[in-house]
Amino acid sequence: MIWNERIECMSREEMRALQSEKLIDLVNRVYNNVDFYRRKMDEIGIKPSDIQSIDDIIKLPFTYKSDLRDHYPFGMFAVPMQKIVRLHASSGTTGKPTTVGYTHNDIANWGEALARCLTMAGISSHDVMQVSYGYGLFTGGLGVHYGAETVGCTVIPISGGNTRRQLQLMSDFGSTVLACTPSYALHLADALSENGYSLRDMKLQIGVFGAEPWTENMRLELEKKWGIKAFDIYGLSEIMGPGVANDCEFHAGLHVNEDHFFPEIVHPNTKTPLSDGEEGELVFTTLTKEGIPLLRYNTRDLSILNHKKCACGRTTVRMNKITGRSDDMLIIRGVNLFPSQIEHVLLEMGETSAHYLLLVDKENNLDTLELEVELDESKMVDTIKDLQMLSRKIENAMNSAIGLSVKVTLVEPKTIARSEGKAIRVIDNRKLRN
Ligand code: DLL
């Protein structure tokens, strides 16, 4: 079934016309309501009247995560606060989160975008959906939740973690759909037998996995382990949250909800627009968003676009599965982490040197983080007890700053290898085992 056939199967000409109309309205809204965009457009000599169609989008300035950070918390909002009905946030590069705000219309459009994605995965009002993405400031839980309710599913808002309880409710409530990160889905599958369950106790049929990069092989592995059909859901909080794009049963790229989120691919260095089939940075313009509309937001995710009609009948543009990022952001258990956040915490504490090495690995399919930190020569710690106290203190500071548990090991000064060029701060052993 197709949730919104009128939009999802629209001809290219009609879609361009719709996008043009929405872009013209958007540019007027941001120019009149967001100082940042008015300044940016004035700087490059572009007026709203210069934007006559979607083809003119390339005249508009880009937006980066640092712009949201520089205007923290609400400086890029385009409506007064009384129109904002929800806030979400995700990690920034140096401690400050990126804040996003939604109006009533934004929440309704998000529900619609998600409903299209879930329907694409074969989900209907007959399904019982276990939402094991985190609820809270992260957009995963509430985002998927509203979409599932729009479709009419019976939703189990269990949120992330607590593996035993996940499996118990999956069995007792007869969940037919599991929504979580692919790594957590793998972890849950492996935990079945040790918790006294087998696939026969479960009614699971569909998985809606995303929030972190995963390969086609991993998708097939999850389908086999669970005996389900697994789908890839993509999104980011700056643009809306989950529901920007999703793959259909042909798994030939993710259909982008392009009437809301207009995608472009640009060259990572020159930022010039690239054509279909060429890999580059994925850029989105939020055509309909009211709370915090963004022009040409550079996601730093690497992908390829394809405008050909899909075998499923949908005509919406497809993006390839994300192959990586053009910056150093890591995704650890679905949480975004920039190495600079680690450095920021160490420097703020000032009790060690700022030389560190972050070791990322997997244990039982869950990401683990280990941090080696060099002691400061001028502040040497004498006793083992003091060393232990210092490690605990750093662990606690990291936990509250980045929301992830980290095992800290203190090492002697000058023992972490110095590099001649770019410092190697992260060793990600997960990549070797995909
Ligand atoms: O991860 C939103 C989301 C929640 C998507 C649940 C899907 C499911 P952020 O925390 O802002 O939002 O992180 C966004 O995560 O720029 C990508 O680098 C990565 N990402 C999200 N989905 C996928 C995916 C949510 N399907 C960042 N494949 C994005 C690869 C993904 N990477």
Describe the structure.
The structure is a single chain. This protein is an alpha/beta fold. The protein has two domains: 324 residues, ANL, N-terminal domain (Rossmann fold), CATH 3.40.50; 104 residues, ANL, C-terminal domain (GMP Synthetase, Chain A, domain 3, 2-Layer Sandwich), CATH 3.30.300.30. The longest helix is centred in the first third of the chain and has 22 residues. The chain is built from eleven helices and 21 strands. β7 and β8 form a beta hairpin. α2 packs across α3, α8 runs parallel beside α9 and α10 packs across α11. The chain is globular and about 70 Å long. The model has no long low-confidence stretch (mean pLDDT 94). 31% of the residues lie in helices and 23% in strands. The strands form five sheets. Strands 4-3-5-6-7-8-9-14-13 form a nine-stranded mixed β-sheet, with helices on both faces. Strands 10-11-12-15 form a four-stranded antiparallel β-sheet, with no helix packed on it. Strands 20-19-18-21 form a four-stranded mixed β-sheet. 5'-O-[hydroxy(phenylacetyl)phosphoryl]adenosine (DLL) binds next to α6, β7, β8 and β12.
The CATH architecture of the largest domain comes to 3-Layer(aba) Sandwich
What is the fold-level CATH name, i.e. the topology of the largest domain? Rossmann fold
Write down the oligomeric state.
Answer: single chain
Structural class: alpha/beta
Number of helices: 11
User: Strand order within the widest sheet?
Assistant: 4-3-5-6-7-8-9-14-13
CATH superfamily of the largest domain: ANL, N-terminal domain
Helix percent reads 25-40%
Name the shape in a single word: globular
Outline the biggest β-sheet.
Answer: 9 strands, mixed
**Stretches with pLDDT under 50, minimum 5 residues:** none
Ligands and ions found: 5'-O-[hydroxy(phenylacetyl)phosphoryl]adenosine
